[in-house]
Each structure stands twice: as structure tokens, then as C-alpha cells.
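pls read this protein.

:::
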Amino acid sequence: MTEEFDALERRPDTLLITLAGNDRPGLTSATLATLALAGVDVVDLEQIVLRARLVLGLLVTAPADAASTDALKHAIEETAHALDMTVEIEEGVGDTPREPADRARVTVLGLPLKAAALASVTRTIASAGGNIDRIIRLARYPVTAFDLHVSGASPDELRVTLSAEAAAQGVDIAVQPANLVRRGMRLIVMDVDSTLIDGEVIEMIAAHAGYEKEVAAVTEAAMRGELDFEESLRGRVKYLKGVPATALDEVYAGLQLNPGARTMVRTLRRLGYRFAIVSGGFSQITDRLAADLGIHYARANELEIVDGVLTGEVVGEVVDRAGKARALREFAAEIGIPEAATVAIGDGANDLDMLAAAGLGIAYNAKPAVRSAAGTAINVPYLDTIMYLLGISREEIEAADAEAGIVTPAPPLL
């Protein structure tokens, strides 16, 4: 009786079956058909295909007795042999539960992403007590992006340690808690100058007055946080006095959106996102940008124009650092979503309050002080990489465009 009891104690509750080989149609169904004949339950299942190589993992309940278990193992081995697959079968007890606490999504982007950098990142995760449960490729061009599912390490602690590692390795890393908030992000709030567009509008207008260099020097200091924003804005706007209002049309016609801007807005609008632009620039430009791109909300300063000429003054309250954060909160409240469901993107010191107020604040090609203060930094010139931080892959983006009749350039062969 004791020997029979010991045998029952040792009998596995589950079998972990792992098959690997060249992918082709019918492999998964053939494996499941063999399992069906044994009458077992599928507890867990995962499959990946990498460069036409398939790895299939199945966790199933073990049959009721040792003889049936041996028969199932033999049947699986025969099926694998017929499919020209390798197979490993491990006995286990139960299904290991996944702890809900301390789970994170770590998104790594590189241009390029070298093996040495990825090795250092994964080593840092392990040193922090994190285990990488799964890795998914989100994009292979124009940047390489991977989404790492990590358990066992605090997202807040990972964010701190990986921020330093990102700087050391020259890659971009975003760490977010693995919860429903990431999937529920529904408002994107963007700065305009040097974020949505390439360059600074006030400098472009100042060029018409012959003061581009003078204005650019003040703008640079203000974006580094060295000057009070409102004071610096009013001082710069004075240089614009006498510029004809028609110059604004010329400036708008010459604007260049940063790469990926239209793709990001187009794709996320399909998913029901709302967009807002909040700028320390001017409504005469931002309102037109919003209309052109299909952006729902816009807030910026207003240049005073009298008799068709800029007076060198702004009208009304200045949209400064605090004003940007206030706009984010007001837009979120109007939509009826929590601030945790917002994403803010900016590059200058006057964006810091807005970045801090958002559920995900992203410093985009930002000044050093902004990069160090923001929770997440993107330093590649493609605005649509923001979507990778939301778990959206390049393949999904292009598939949606193809359905809408939008043709994207073919990726380079690798």
C-alpha cells in the first residue's frame, strides 16, 4: 500500500510538451489531434514562429495512470517524428500561477539595436530580480523594437535602473506597469515645436523680421529651463513687431512634420484615441495644424494682429509650463478619462509639468534636463515609435493602412 501511495504522490499532474522545427501548415492541429485521442485538457499553450522556425509549447493534464501517460508520451514522440520536429516532454505538478504583482512591460528601441546593448539590458533586469517571461518584436525598421514581459521586479525600480542603462547603451527604454491602464490610454497630448513639427515657429516668423538668430538664442535657453517662459516669450514676440500677418501663411506652408506624425495620428484615431496639441507657440499656426491632422483639441498663445500686422504682443493668458499641464487635465476631464489614461509628449522644460501629469510622459528628442526628469525618453527621430510603447506593432500599423488603401514603402531585406 505504501509503495502504491508513493507512486500516486510521484505521478505528474501535468505534462509540458515542447516541439520545435520548420514551420508549415498543420503542425499545431496534428499535435492537438494526438492529444485529443488521449482525452487530456489543455492548461496553457504558446507558439512562436521566428524566421520560419516554430516553437510550440503545450501544458496539458496528465492521464489518470502511468500506463496511459507513457502511451501519450509515445504517441507525441511519433507525431513529432512524422512532422520532422524535435520534442521534449517534462513532467510537472499543476500549473504554476502567475503572480499579479510586480509585472512590467519593458519596451526597448534601438537604431540599430546591437546584441551587446540588449544583453546589458536583460542582465540589468535579472540583477533587479526580474524574470523575462516573454519577448515580442514590435518593429524591425526603421528602428528595432522589442516588448519584454517582465515579472518579479518593481516597475518603478526597473525604470530607475534601466534609465541609466539606456543612456549607457545608447538605446531607448520605456518601463510601464503591466496593467489595463496601458491598454486604456485614450488621449495623446503633444507639444508642437520640435515635437510634432521640426523646428520652432517663432524663429521662422522672426526670420521675416531679420531677428531669427536673436530669437533662437532665447528660445534655446528657455527650452533648457534657464529662463522664465512667459517672460522669454513676451521678449521674443517683441521682435515680431511689424511683420505682416501674411508671413504666417508662408510659415505654415513651410512647416515640416516630424517623421511618423501622420502615421501615429491616423493609426491611433482608428483605435478611438483623442489627440490634443498644447503649445507655447501660436494659435494662428496650431489651429491650422489641428484641422489638417484631425486633432481634436488645440491650445496655444494668440499673436495680436492689428491692421494686418503683428504688434509684437500676445493676447490673453500665456500658455506656459503650468498652463500645459492644466490643459491636459481639462481635456482629459472633458473626454471623461483619468489622467492615468493620458500620454504626453514634449521636448522642452516648459513641457515638464505636462509630462509629469500624464499617465505616460515621454521626452521626445528632448533637452538633457528634460530627458533626465521624464520617466520615458525617445531619442530616435520617428514620432510613430510612440505606438510601440502602447504595444502596437509595425505589422499591425501597416496592415491597417493597407486595408485603408494606404501603401507603405517596402522594408529593407534583412
Notes: The chain has three domains: 2-92, 103-178, 188-381. The mean pLDDT is 91. Residues 282 and 301 are 5 Å apart (CA to CA).
